[in-house]
Each structure stands twice: as structure tokens, then as C-alpha cells.
Amino acid sequence: MLGGTVRGKRTTLRIPVEADLASHARWAADLRMQRGGPGATWGTAVATATWKERFAEQAKDRGSVLWSIDDEEGALVGSALVNFDGGATADTVGVRHFLVDPDRWHGGLGWDAALALHRWIFDFMDLRLAYAILPADNVHAIRILDRLGHESFGLGHAVYYRDGAYADQAHRIMSKDAWTERWGASEREYEPLPAAAYL
């Protein structure tokens, strides 16, 4: 599926359009992104026609959701893709890839978009768990996950080959209860219904 609009303070997750594919092609070929391991970009570097095929297939895939991420000025700065474990009726979602343009790293856009994405996961979709698997040396992404409230639940040792050696993966997980405790007072998509609404 293609994701709808989720607004952060500085970023907006929005429905992707075909014009975004040129940026995906550029990111997939960027060596800085290759260090992110499998899933760092939405697919490997390929011809334009193949990107269009991927886009068409993603629009039909009910088990995952793809967003483009814009900054405050409406410029495309990244993308995010989540998978529902067990299909569209699942209560667990995995962040398959989350990307901010390397030219815009360290400006706070990743944090803002990640917070908006988790608000969608827990408050809008009311899912039970979210998890992410990423390179163990991606300290900036891990710092964002820690700040959100993710906990470590595993380590993949020597999972994939990169830069002439095998690299480890960090496994992080967050529950809806942890989200509500940390962010429920300030980051609600919708106000909770009163108890009388459930009678």
C-alpha cells in the first residue's frame, strides 16, 4: 500500500508519487546508504523502468505501507516502509526501511519523521508492537529508537557482508504500552474516547 498523510512538527509522511522514484534511484546508488545493510533503501540500484515496476507492485501490496517524507518546505527528504507481520490484519509491524537523504543527515528530520511514524503505528493504527532490525553500528538510528522507547531484544552476529567484513545487527522492539507511557500525553493522533463510548 501507499501511505497517507502523517504530519510531524518538521516533516510530513505522505503518499509517494512516481516523481519520487528518481530520488529512490539516487539513494540506492549512494555508497553512504550501502552501509545501512539490507533494507537501508527501498530496493537496490536498477533501471528507471524497474523502479516503476516496484512502485506499481508496492501500491498493490496489502502487507506493507510505503511513505515519502517531506521537510517543512515540501522537499522530498526520505522514505519509510513498514511490513505487517502476518498480513494486513496483524498487530505487529516491522520497520523494514527508514531513510533520510544523506545530504540532510544530522538535522533532526529523522527524529521528527520517526516520531510521526510511531504515532501512526500506535495511536492511529492501534498496533501492539513495532520492531526494527538495523546495523549494530548505526548509532544515530539506535539513538532515535532508544529515545522513542525501543528496547534491545537481540543481536544478529555477523549477519551480512560489508566493507570486507561481516557486520552485526541490532534488534529493537517497542510495545504500545511503552509508547503510551512515554508519548501518550503529548503525541496523540486522536483524543481517546470517553469510557461511556464503550458502553
Defining key terms:
single chain, 199 residues, alpha+beta
Please state how the strands of the largest beta sheet are arranged side by side: 1-2-3-4-5-6-8-7
Number of helical runs?
A: 6
- What is the share of helical residues? 25-40%
Largest sheet: 8 strands, mixed
Name the overall outline: globular
- How far apart the termini lie comes to 34 Å
Number of strands: 8
Question: If you average the pLDDT, what whole number results?
Answer: 87
> Strand-residue fraction?
25-35%
Radius of gyration: 17 Å
Structural class: alpha+beta
Poorly predicted tracts of residues: none
Order of helices and strands: EEHHHEEEHEHEEH
Description:
The chain is α+β, with helices and mostly antiparallel strands and 199 residues long. Helix content is 30%, strand content 30%. Strands 1-2-3-4-5-6-8-7 form an eight-stranded mixed sheet. The protein is globular.
Write the layout of secondary structure elements.
Blueprint: E1 6-7, E2 12-14, H1 21-29, H2 31-34, H3 48-60, E3 64-70, E4 76-84, E5 92-100, H4 109-124, E6 129-135, H5 139-148, E7 151-162, E8 165-175, H6 176-183
Parallel strand pairs: 5-6
Antiparallel strand pairs: 1-2, 2-3, 3-4, 4-5, 6-8, 7-8
